[in-house]
Design a protein that fits this description.
By secondary structure, the protein is mainly alpha-helical. It is built from eleven helices and no strands.
Length: 203
């Protein structure tokens, strides 16, 4: 679970701080400044009105802060609430992180079916972490019908994804190789071709 906490926080903190300075909402710049200075309580105070106004990126940031306990007591349930708001707006980071919470049962009841739906949306948008988790769901038939071909396809995409955290790269590569050994050479070649020709879905 510690690794899951680190991953969600790293993905969302980086995402928010990269785009936040370009947003127009009042108080956001102050929030970013406070965050960079390590004043997380003040940063959260500044971020909350912007998130409540419907900024999906800031909703992810608020969720990440509740998830890790930055400027507030750690509360997975509140993190899930904010990720849900972001995911409902079609934000791929929100979909991925909420899907991950359902996958592990953090802040929400563990539900592989809900995880699969959210991770599919995020995976189609190119999120490598979501693609990796989808590969495991299809390999073991959790929340979806067991499908080794789909598992292999998603694992190939995950390994190639530029945003897949380094800590998951080795595991994803091992999973891909494990699944490949289960398939016939003709299947492997066909799926690899599909993966090479695949591109993320754009809004």
């Amino acid at each position: 679970m510690g690794r899951a906490v680190h991953l969600v926080a790293a993905v969302l903190t980086a995402t928010c701080l990269l785009v936040a300075p370009h947003a127009a909402q009042a108080g956001l710049e102050e929030g970013v400044k406070a965050y960079r200075e390590g004043d997380y309580a003040r940063a959260l105070e500044e971020f909350l009105p912007v998130a409540a106004a419907g900024d999906a990126t800031v909703q992810n940031q608020v969720a990440a802060m509740y998830y890790t306990g930055q400027g507030t007591p750690q509360e997975f349930a509140k993190a899930a609430e904010w990720f849900k708001k972001s995911a409902s707006l079609g934000n791929a980071d929100g979909q991925y992180c909420l899907g991950k919470l359902y996958y592990y049962g953090q802040g929400v009841p563990q539900n592989f079916g809900d995880a699969a739906k959210l991770l599919t949306d995020a995976g189609l948008a190119g999120k490598g972490g979501a693609q990796y988790l989808l590969a495991t769901l299809y390999l073991y038939g959790k929340g979806v019908s067991k499908n080794t071909v789909k598992a292999y396809f998603w694992s190939i995409l995950a390994v190639a994804a530029p945003d897949l955290p380094a800590e998951d790269k080795t595991a994803a590569t091992s999973l891909r190789d494990q699944i490949e050994a289960m398939l016939a050479p003709r299947q492997v070649e066909s799926i690899q071709t599909m993966a090479r020709n695949w591109s993320p879905r754009r809004k």
